[in-house]
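Objective 1.3, modelling of assemblies. Example input:
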Amino acid sequence: MSLIAEAIRVRYGGREVLQGVDLAAEAGHVTAIVGPNGSGKSTLLGALTATLPHEGRVRLNGRDIAGMKPWELAAERAVLPQASRLAFPFRVLEVVRLGQQAGTAGDRPDVPLQALARVGLAHHADRTFQDLSGGEAQRVMLARVLAQVWAPVEEGRPRWLLLDEPVSSLDIAHQLQVMEIARRFARAGGGVIAVMHDLNLTALFADRVAVLAEGRLLATGTPRTVLTDTILSRAYGCALRVSAPPPEDVPYILPHAASA
Amino acid sequence: MIARLLSALLAAGCTAASAEPAPEADVLSIGGSVTEIVAALGQGHRLRARDSTSTWPPEVADLPDVGYMRALSPEGVLSVGPDLILSEDGAGPPEALDVIRAADVAFVTVPDAVTTDGILRKIEIVGAALGVPDRAAALSDAVATDLADAMADAARPDAQRKRVLFVLSTQGGRITASGTGTAADALIRMAGATNAVTEFEGYKQISDEAVGRAAPDVILMMDRGGDHGAADDELFAMPAIRLTPAAADRASVRLDGLLMLGFGPRTAEAVRRLNAALYDEGA
Amino acid sequence: MAALTDVQAPPRDRLSRARALHWALAAALVLASAASLEVGATDVRLSALLAKLVQGEALGQMERIVLLDIRLPRLAMGLLVGAALAVSGAVMQGLFRNPLADPGIVGVGAGAGLGAILAIVLGGLLPVWARDLAGNQLVPVAAFLGGWGSTLLLYRVATRGGRTSVATMLLAGIALGALAGALSGILVYIADDQQLRDLTFWGLGSLAGASWAKVAAAGPMIALALGAAVLLGRALNGLALGEATAAHIGIDVQRMKAVAILAVAGATGAAVAVSGGIGFVGIVVPHLLRLASGPDHRTLLPNAALLGATLLILADVIARVVIAPAELPIGIVTAILGAPVFLWILLRRRGLVDG
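Predicted structure (tokens):
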């Protein structure tokens, strides 16, 4: 089962922000979308989630999302936006329940608290959402998303997590916590697509990486094949050197090691 | 002149009094002029309640007030228990009147008037509704004579007539004045003067320049109590009015609104008082 | 006190508290209704009449008229109008994600006002058959058409390619309000003294013109609109997260907007048409309820209907008793009671507004 996008084009006011992007993400993998600012990462996620009007086709678990109702989509995939403003003083647990009710685990009373526990915020269940810090709010939203697709696989069909910069407001410990949650969801059979800013975290957690630049797909593959000096320097328009120290055998990026 | 009116009333009272049983208070009177007519017919004792525009004679102030005549409360009206409602034209809302009629309360509408004939017609209708046509006829005669005398005294050649601007309100520095076809216009003409504004009908806001062009000799307003000197300072300081002949002479007249605009039994008095205020020395 | 229990209570309790509140408000509505039938300018008393009926005595004509033709339609109208205004306010606040929104935003007020002014000032110019057809109901009919029509117009303006932009609707609403205000100004200029007085009283609102005919005309429209609005609870909860996220959790955002806007236009248009301008119910009632039992629209909307009806019925009792046999316009009562409460809420809970 997979999430496949074909020839995605999106226009904003006459400018073509995405110029025919193909993407194939497999359930069981964490697929990261990286690229410089304005390369179209979030726009691509918007097309994948049926939020933005676009040309091209997106198939989720074999079905064209254009023909699916909002509630049908909500049962198959959950979406974490970059930033969330909540209009009324809902409590943290009530926010998580909003996600839970959209999914197929809507009747299990234990799910919201478990989801909060997973992001380490069960003790804040009764607090008003607006009283949380930015990082806490982002993790509550992740809990809401998790509660919506609580079982990574249901009736043999994978559920999907679509995350737009899920660690943007977080400190390093919580960045690792959140990425670990995403990885576990994928290992359990679910699909994860994450727009990422941090190339190191991408290298650590992604199974597949898609590099966007100027509205086109520049490269796609495993972190090892994609996160290279040539590709990244071309994508980001500056000299970057990728290093892989022997003990971990995982690539990491040192901007300060770039030759001037 | 007042004495003449009173004697006419007394005469009417004497002829009719013996024939009538003494009725109880059973009338709700709506509209200032209607209430005045009821009282002038010697039937003031039959008033059980009034509306908020009924302020004359002073005794009626003690009666229950059913509120503004165009926003009546049906239960409020029924609660004063009238057998007869006498109302100027325009009482409402219509739903309230429907309910009141359904409760078998006689409801008599008295049409508005801005002429002598209109006043006499009001008296006739009220007198008939109250079952005192003889008194009404006597009052009618007295009022007609009195008004004719007052207007004859007030009349003067066009060239000597002062131009009068009736100002309804100066709210927010904007002047609402009377054009033609209003009670104010009628009274100004009856009192031997000229309405300074004839370009429009009814009461309307009027621009500063239009006030200047109207060039009133006198500003006529409703008397709302308070210090007239201070009110005049404010009035004649208004840009619109500062340039008029009226401002140069500080010529203003204030009369009670109901007396002036009610067109009831006291209109002759209003004519005389306005005429005196306009033309007598020292006014 | 409330804050302490909030923290200690398990989270499920806010929902059950809202449900308990539901029954308390229903009881309050019954009591307010009884008071509204018991008290009035006349000394007709519901309790006395019931005693009479129990003893098998017939009611007098006066008692029947006061109870059945004056107080009962008035109670029914207060109930309908109060529920309509409060629920419309709550729906608008949810739709615009702003606790200060009210139905005025979608142009109902401006349009209804223009319709009413047109009817009051120019009604006399209509051909006789049209006046006969409308009868006493010319002003309410015109107000309803004006309110409903302007909302439909705004909805059309703000909808492009099947999507309605609430921001566009807000801005277009301001423009439409200014236009309606200007047209009303022209009409006010040509209005005569009596018509101006009528306009003022219409703007202050009143249930004094209540009649079974008005209840029959406004009732089904308000009931239908409120029925639709109350079903929006879950969708409005989702919308609190923003339009995109609401769609992601399975809500048909466009359909919800259409239902919400049409329901509010219908309910408010009908309410304003039969009762004139009654302020503050639509803002104060949802605020009080959010303070008492949280922002969950699934309980907020039905509770707003109950509390709005209760408060308006009580305000009407006050309006007709304080200066009896005359009565105050009810808009004055709701503003005098509502404005201080509103200020108090703002001072105590700034966070509610600033988010």
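The CA atoms of residues 28 and 217 of chain A lie 22 Å apart.
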